[in-house]
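User: For my dataset I need records formatted as: sequence, then structure tokens, nothing else. Please produce one.
Assistant:
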Amino acid sequence: MEFGKIINSNSNHSSPSGEAGKGAIGRIAIMGGGSWATAIAKIMLESTDEIWWYMRRDDRIEEFRRLSHNPAYLTSVHFDVQRIHFSSDINEVANACQTLIFVTPSPYMKSHLKKLKVRLRDKFIITAIKGIVPDENLVVSEYFHQVYSVPDENLAVLGGPSHAEEVALRRLTYLTVGCADLDKAEEFADLIASDYIKTKTSDDVLGIEYASVLKNVYAIAAGICNGLKYGDNFQAVLMTNAAQEMERFLRAVHPIDRNIIDSVYMGDLLVTGYSNFSRNRVFGNMIGKGYSVKSAQIEMEMIAEGYFGTKCMKDINRHMHVNMPILDAMYNILYERIAPSIEIKLLTDSFR
């Protein structure tokens, strides 16, 4: 399939259209300090003169300024810190900027937003969070819409197969910008496009977000199976069944015309399920090798969003009643403490 051809009104982009500050974009802020936030900041500074960057910890900010790189993530990526307005005050950053790109881990997003006093409904909110808001069981765009009254036309999602480590190395990456307002999606897609970032647009915001949550769950399954010494033959069958399960859920939760084999769905599923850069796959691999959930989380020292996503999606599906055997198996292993060897054997017997 040619990139840029998707059922939901997409178009192809290959070069930036101009400086930030035009149209709906305005000043841009990165909200979060992890690896994907760092990679997105790198992308933005190739297209814009300056960015604002919210990080929670002042000591990290000071070290970043001193070293000219993020002291904790993607340390090989160097920045011109004179072009970055750092702040640990979320209100200062939100007040200064029109476009806020949220890249905080989904389990911590609510705690960051509790400090916020700036009205968000007039901002352009872009979520690059591939997770779901715990307790609320809402994808991030739904959370901003319901809790902060941000209209759909001011909500966008950045999706697609995109490991931060590869973006940092300027390896060819394909991203999709989803927004109900396709003009705004086009403007942002044009802005971030470059010789190694290819972009397109879609209006399937919910589908992209739910797919990005589910692919993390399925990556944990792939890791568990790898840890249990299942081979490549079975991994291919697992990913095929995962794609079918994802499509069933997306059709139930947001029944529009979409092509599940597009890169923003299938591509993100495959890269997360197969790559050693995938923290969800690494987490699952440790579970398959006999680690407890707690010990795997402690040793990783990073968030595997699929762990939280599994419970949230299980709760959501109790109301949707979609046939999701892989999700059920992951829930049983991670939350009901069923032995992975037993649960995966039952899963294999259900595949054809």
